[in-house]
Structures are given as structure tokens and as C-alpha cells.
Design goal:
alpha/beta; 5-stranded mixed sheet; 368 residues
Length: 368
């Protein structure tokens, strides 16, 4: 009996010891020593920081990529004009065909700006390149539903002459100028320069308006003595008719007569506010800026010329190659910079003809 009693007592002691160890372990887990706590806290903090950093990085990456992620590419219907206003989009079109853009695009290329404007108003296009005064007209006509989002073209207009008699605006007196762009930027720019230089249209000088392609063909064949054309029509005429030369650069003449720092800005990108949200706009501007950079890089001149022809913006590679450096392609998307470049220009156009900007100079909400 005594033997069994001793064994039972030993078992009880063991049980009590194990129970005590369990309680000590539990307490130790709940309240570690200072050193252990610091280590544990440091590890937890490090783990938490790493987790937080990873989450922040992930969140930042998600935020950055979500704007233009492959999973949710915005879909845009974009319209561009043949010539300098549309030239900068050629690389964008090629990248879209290669599925290498931030957005998915359906492109339209037109020679008649009225087709672009009617499609923008009806919703047939979401975003488009248009003459700058047309952007103002669209803004006013749609009560602010179409805004400017980037400037893409500066001055590209020249007076060409068969001969060597025109050295200044005053030398145009008594002559007939065949010109393009009736009812658009070219007409308002030319006639404003003439007026500011003391020449009255219809009295001192005659201006006859024609379609750009028609006038370029006529000038190349020697059918006119003086004409106003934009690049790349200028390039085509000079290549075919060695008797013609660049007599006057209207960008320089504009600076001379405005005196207020106004810049001759002829082309821009506009977007509908109801179909192009901030995310889609951000994606488009990334794509378009990359396209402008590619098209204006002299190292890409040969391939840029091929793309301009491939997508119907220019008729031939030699003309495109010669014209691209003179197309004044730019990318200005900051609202303040756009306002600075355009507001003075619009004021001049408004003073010349209110209808040229749609009846009023756009307010600050125009610049998106």
C-alpha cells in the first residue's frame, strides 16, 4: 500500500508541476519580458511596416496602373484631320494597331473639319484634333460639353510667291492671294494681319479662297502667282514647282502685328466631357504625348514619314519627310499653359470676327 501511495503522490506532484508550467507559459506569452517584448515589438513593427509598405506600394502601383490598366482600357472614338493637325497621331495609330496603347481606339481621318465637328456634337466622336478656333466654337455651341485638353500645332502657314517681289506684307498690295481655310483659322489670321498692316481686303488686296488640295495642285502647276498654304501643302508645291518660294511666314507676321505675346496656335485636341472621363483622358494624353515625341524626334524621321502616309495623313513619303520638321507639332496639356497660349489669340480673333470663336472668348472652364 505504501508503495502505491508513493507512486500516487509522485503523479500528483508531476501534474501540479505541469499545470504550473502551462500557467507560466500562458503568462509569458501574454506579458513577455522587456527584452522579449522589445524584440517581439520590433519584429511586429518591422512586419507591420513591411506589410504597410507593401500595401502602400501595391496601392500606389494599383492607383498608377488603374488609371490605364490593361483590364479596363478606356475605349475612345478619335478623329484626326489630314495635314499638320493630325500628323502627330500617326505613331499613336500604329501603336494602337499593335495593341500597345493605354486606350482602345477607333480612328477617323478626315480632310473636312465639318465632318469632325458634327461627329463631336452628335457623339460620333469622343476626342478629336481640330483648329483652335473651332475648339472655341464647339465649347460655346455645346454649352461647355467640349473642352480643350492639349495644344498640338503652332503656326504652319506661309505666303508662297512665284518670283521674288514680296519681302513684306506691304508688297501684297494690288495682288490677288489665293488662300485656304475660309471660315476657319487661316482666313482670320491672314485677314487680321492684312488689316493690321494697313491693307483692306477687297480694296488693297484680293483674297480668293479655295480647298487646300485644289489650291496646292494649281500652285504646283504654276496656275497662281501668290498663295497662302499650310505645311505639308507648302512642301508639296515647292517640290513640284521650283519657281515658287516661301515669301512670308505668317507666324512671324502674327508676332509683329499682335505685340502682346500672342502665339499663333493653329491646332488642338478637344474632348467631350460626358464620354471622356478623367481616367480615359489621362490614358489618352499618355498615348498622345508619346506619339508627338516619336513623330518629332529627328531620329525617327524616316519611319514617321512612312506612318503619316500609311494612315492617310499625308499623300507621299518624300513630302511627309520634308514636311514633318516644319509642322510645328507640340504637346501642351497643362491648363494654365494652354490658357496663356490661347487666350490672347482668341481675343484677337474675337475682335476681328466674333463668330470665329463662337460668339465669345472661352472662360477658364474651357481648359481641362
Amino acid at each position: 500500500m505504501k508503495k502505491y501511495a508513493k507512486i500516487l503522490a509522485a503523479v500528483l506532484v508531476l501534474i501540479l508541476a505541469l499545470t504550473a508550467c502551462g500557467k507560466t507559459a500562458t503568462v509569458s506569452s501574454a506579458a513577455p519580458s522587456s527584452s522579449s517584448a522589445a524584440s517581439s515589438s520590433s519584429a511586429a513593427s518591422s512586419s507591420s511596416a513591411a506589410s504597410s509598405s507593401a500595401a502602400s506600394s501595391s496601392s500606389s502601383a494599383a492607383s498608377s496602373s488603374s488609371a490605364c490598366s490593361d483590364e479596363r482600357k478606356p475605349s475612345l472614338k478619335a478623329g484626326f484631320l489630314k495635314g499638320p493637325t493630325g500628323m502627330g497621331a500617326a505613331y499613336l495609330m500604329s501603336q494602337s494597331d499593335a495593341a500597345a496603347t493605354q486606350c482602345e481606339y477607333t480612328f477617323t481621318v478626315e480632310s473636312d473639319v465639318s465632318n469632325i465637328t458634327s461627329a463631336l456634337i452628335s457623339g460620333g466622336l469622343d476626342i478629336a484634333a481640330v483648329p483652335t478656333n473651332v475648339a472655341s466654337v464647339l465649347y460655346n455651341k455645346t454649352s461647355g460639353k467640349v473642352n480643350v485638353v492639349a495644344i498640338n500645332t503652332l503656326g504652319v502657314l506661309y505666303i508662297l510667291e512665284k518670283g521674288n517681289t514680296i519681302q513684306s506684307v506691304s508688297d501684297l498690295k494690288g495682288k490677288t492671294i489665293y488662300a485656304i481655310g475660309q471660315g476657319a483659322n487661316p482666313q482670320y489670321v491672314l485677314e487680321y494681319i492684312l488689316r493690321q498692316s494697313g491693307l483692306t481686303v477687297g480694296t488693297d488686296v484680293t483674297v480668293e479662297y479655295m480647298a487646300a488640295d485644289e489650291l496646292a495642285t494649281k500652285a504646283a502647276a504654276g496656275g497662281v502667282d501668290v498663295c497662302m498654304l499650310p505645311v505639308p501643302n507648302v512642301t508639296a508645291v515647292l517640290a513640284k514647282n521650283k519657281d515658287m518660294r516661301k515669301a512670308l511666314n505668317l507666324s512671324d507676321l502674327w508676332k509683329d502685328v499682335t505685340k502682346g505675346g500672342s502665339v499663333l496656335t493653329q491646332g488642338c485636341i478637344v474632348a467631350r466631357t460626358d464620354s471622356v472621363d478623367d481616367n480615359a483622358l489621362k490614358c489618352f494624353l499618355k498615348d498622345y504625348e508619346a506619339s508627338i515625341k516619336y513623330m518629332t524626334d529627328t531620329a525617327n524621321l524616316d519611319s514617321a514619314a512612312k506612318l503619316a502616309v500609311q494612315y492617310g495623313i499625308v499623300a507621299s513619303e518624300p513630302i511627309a519627310k520634308a514636311a514633318i520638321p516644319d509642322c510645328s507639332m507640340v504637346f501642351i496639356s497643362d491648363p494654365n499653359e494652354m490658357r496663356e497660349a490661347l487666350s490672347g489669340y482668341f481675343e484677337v480673333l474675337y475682335a476681328a470676327d466674333k463668330t470665329s470663336v463662337g460668339g465669345s472668348v472661352p472662360d477658364d472652364a474651357f481648359y481641362r
